[in-house]
């Protein structure tokens, strides 16, 4: 049974659409990345799943509990960890007091172990905390009751690079031991590192659901070559080559393109021109997402994009 299942989930704030007709499932033991530009509907989805607000239409279950069934959802919430994008605390309480409070509420099976990795200054009032320390406290609170499912809204924001890496390592290890995640993020590098599948949301609608490997495969390879000689503009215009760019650079000629064909004809073609440098790598995941962020191809005709395709990814 999926740990999260939504069916045509819809939330309007008055006339403003938060999300509309969103259907996806997060399977047990996977990290499901939830991506989309600002205002796309990620937080709306998460808040509806946690029962902070009621759906306008459609339905959703979290660990089997209908989000509209308050009693069932309260029970399932005991097995859910939540890391909000901007954790709100009782500012005058110390970190230690807040851990005690949450421990009494949901249980504390692992705060000691978590505090070895994420170490906010527990004896200071939260109002004195830096952004990163607030985030670390929120991480400990999200995991201390050893939940089966963790819902994270941009979890690495505010953390320094070392702590970010620790959190991603921690998520991977938790996944190995069977924990499931819904992971909302703008940071494609981290999505790449930890997510098995992604759902892409735009203007309140889910426009794609796929595993990360498939998305990268579909995107092809990024090829960068350097040649000593001048090349004709169409020297690499053959099947499977996209976005071809041939330009002089210093004494050499640089050729760059995205390639979706077989390796053999590509390599033959490169060797026939006697290359100085050959660089073939995975096309960046950014390219895949930008395509979803920027075009209207996958949306219903006639819909206005309130975000203009803008993204801070
Ligand atoms: N409380 C609210 N009242 C009215 N409109 C809201 C409310 N919360 C969200 N919205 C609107 O719903 C839409 C989706 O917003 P949401 O915050 O879910 O997006 P998001 O994907 O989480 O964005 P971000 O990446 O910027 O956090 C936006 O148009 C937003 O203005």
TrEMBL record:
PANTHER family listed in its UniProt record: ABC TRANSPORTER ATP-BINDING PROTEIN, ABC TRANSPORTER ATP-BINDING PROTEIN NATA
Ranges of residues in domain ABC transporter: 4-228
PROSITE patterns: ABC_TRANSPORTER_2 (PS50893)
SMART domains: AAA
The protein, known as: ATP-binding cassette domain-containing protein
Domain of life: Archaea
GO molecular function term, any single one: ATP hydrolysis activity
Pfam families, per database record: ABC_tran
Homology family: Belongs to the ABC transporter superfamily.
Transport in keyword set: yes
Keywords for the protein's UniProt record, in alphabetical order: ATP-binding, Nucleotide-binding, Transport
InterPro entries xref list: AAA+_ATPase, ABC_transporter-like_ATP-bd, ABC_transporter_ATP-binding, P-loop_NTPase
């Amino acid at each position: 049974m999926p740990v999260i299942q939504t069916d045509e989930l819809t939330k309007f704030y008055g006339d403003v659409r938060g999300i509309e007709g969103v259907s996806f499932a997060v399977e047990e033991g996977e990290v499901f990345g939830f991506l989309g530009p600002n205002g796309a509907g990620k937080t709306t989805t998460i808040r509806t799943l946690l029962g902070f607000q009621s759906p306008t239409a459609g339905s959703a279950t979290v660990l089997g509990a209908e989000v509209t069934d308050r009693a069932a959802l309260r029970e399932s919430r005991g097995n859910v960890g939540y890391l909000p994008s901007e954790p709100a605390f009782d500012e005058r309480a110390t970190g230690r007091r807040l851990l005690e409070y949450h421990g009494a509420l949901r249980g504390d099976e692992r705060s000691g172990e978590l505090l070895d990795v994420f170490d906010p200054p527990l004896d200071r009032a939260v109002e004195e905390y830096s952004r990163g320390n607030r985030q670390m406290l929120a991480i400990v609170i999200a995991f201390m009751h050893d939940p089966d499912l963790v819902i994270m809204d941009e979890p690495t924001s505010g953390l320094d690079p070392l702590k970010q890496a620790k959190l991603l390592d921690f998520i991977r290890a938790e996944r190995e031991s069977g924990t499931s995640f819904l992971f909302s993020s703008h940071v494609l590098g981290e999505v790449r590192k930890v997510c098995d599948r992604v759902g892409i949301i735009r203007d309140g609608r889910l426009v794609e659901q796929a595993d990360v490997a498939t998305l990268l495969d579909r995107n092809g390879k990024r090829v960068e070559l350097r040649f000593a000689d001048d090349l004709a503009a169409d020297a690499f215009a053959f099947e499977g080559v996209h976005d071809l760019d041939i330009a002089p650079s210093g004494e050499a000629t640089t050729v760059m393109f995205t390639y979706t064909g077989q390796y053999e004809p590509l390599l033959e073609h490169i060797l026939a021109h006697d290359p100085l440098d050959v660089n073939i790598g995975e096309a960046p995941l950014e390219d895949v997402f930008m395509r979803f962020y920027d075009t209207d191809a996958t949306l219903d005709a006639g819909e206005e994009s309130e975000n203009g395709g803008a993204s801070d990814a």
